[in-house]
Amino acid sequence: MSALARAVVAADPLGATGVRAAAERAVLDHVACAALCDADPAARDQASHLLAWARAEGEPVAGRPVLGTDARLAPSRAALVGGFRAHLLDLDDTHEDVRGHPSASLVPTLIALADDAAPLPDVLAAHAVGLEAMARLGRALGPAHYAAGFHPTATAGAVGAAAAGAHLLRLDEGTTARALSLAASRSAGVRAQFGTPAKPLHAGMAAQAGVEAVQWALAGIGAADDAVAGSVGLLASHGVEADVREALTSGFGQTWAIAAPGLWMKRSPFCSAAMGLVEAAAELADELDGTVDERAARIVGVRVRMRPGADAALVHRAPRTGEEARFSAEALVALALLGVPRDLAHLGAEPLDPRARALAGRVVREHVSAGTRGTPSAPGPDPRTGRAVRDMWSGVDVELADGRVLAAQVDRPAGSPQRPLPDTALRAKAAEALGEERAAALVALLAGPDATVGALTALAVAGAP
């Protein structure tokens, strides 16, 4: 029987230090992202297309809510649309072990499978369990999985969503094993979709796969004992060696990935791989004077430096639209140097600002190994987990027409686990999405001992008071 199923059934995360607080922040951020989807016309348009398709099958009386909307859909459809909405703007959380976006897959799964009377702490616990499964799968799959073109939000996310759902519903070990097995057969998503609406659809697809895997397992559909870590299962099919597969659940529950290393959280709608570069460029922008056009004229060239492979997600070197620019080191650094906000007005589906596009053409990428060329050594292991901390060092050098060279470096960007987004900033994000009163009510609800899923969704759907 699946060792992962045993671990999921036995897990008890909320007693561990930092887990509940981290899960509360993750759900608050997720609700904000789902609501902010409608702030961008192109994102709202894309979300409406998927919702219209889902509604075409009819809205069941006992349907589950889609956060940020007034829709109630069949559970798997609610999960699909909910995950899509939450990830559409790339404002949602990420996790470096996953190399993807956990909450956009996990929270819609849990809202879809829970009933309104379910205790909210059960959802927080299941979120932590699902993220732990995703993180362990992400570490097992390793950077080669990502480099080959797979998107772990979709691949690890399907199994993680099933793990979360199984834990929430307190399924027994056999039923949990079948749910994980079925989800493994739904694990798919490629990075070719980055910069298009199909990329956020991956989060919805993972959530949908998780819901359906749990439902199918409950319906009695049979499946292999272990299609995740077995000899011809998901991990093996991606080239993961037997010893790594066998260690997948080693120490499960001793530490929790949601708390250590923790989640990355964002204030701006672009890929987390560029956060350090943008922060360094913004620091240099403070030294530049003049209008956007004057700044552009003064900059001769730009060199952006990062660790080998750290820019794998930044797939667009010459983006045409703001949406593509969310995944472009060149464009994001150009916008920051020109003093142009990295917001929805400039990172939407419209053509990228031509001045930023021109400057992006003068940006060169350079990969620099840790401890070489005047850069810091690789960070030591996280003392909480003993595992290596991902090196996200970033540097930006700007050559000016007067011969000067401006340089800035960032070891870990704001919003990373080592420099977490303050609670005040996260609450401001929620207030922007929901309004001050609803955001404050949601914060209080998440921290309360007796809250229910129904109380959460009542605050998080469109038209809530």
From TrEMBL:
Protein name (Swiss-Prot/TrEMBL): MmgE/PrpD family protein
- Into which family does the record put it? Belongs to the PrpD family.
Looking up Gene3D superfamilies in the UniProt record yields: 2-methylcitrate dehydratase PrpD
Q: Which PANTHER family match?
A: 2-METHYLCITRATE DEHYDRATASE, 2-METHYLCITRATE DEHYDRATASE-RELATED
- Using the record's annotation, list all stretches that form the MmgE/PrpD C-terminal domain: 269-434
Residue segments, region Disordered? 367-386
Q: Which Pfam families match?
A: MmgE_PrpD_C (PF19305), MmgE_PrpD_N (PF03972)
**SUPFAM superfamilies found in the cross-reference section:** 2-methylcitrate dehydratase PrpD (SSF103378)
Every copy of the MmgE/PrpD N-terminal domain together lies at 18-239
Gene Ontology MF annotations:
lyase activity
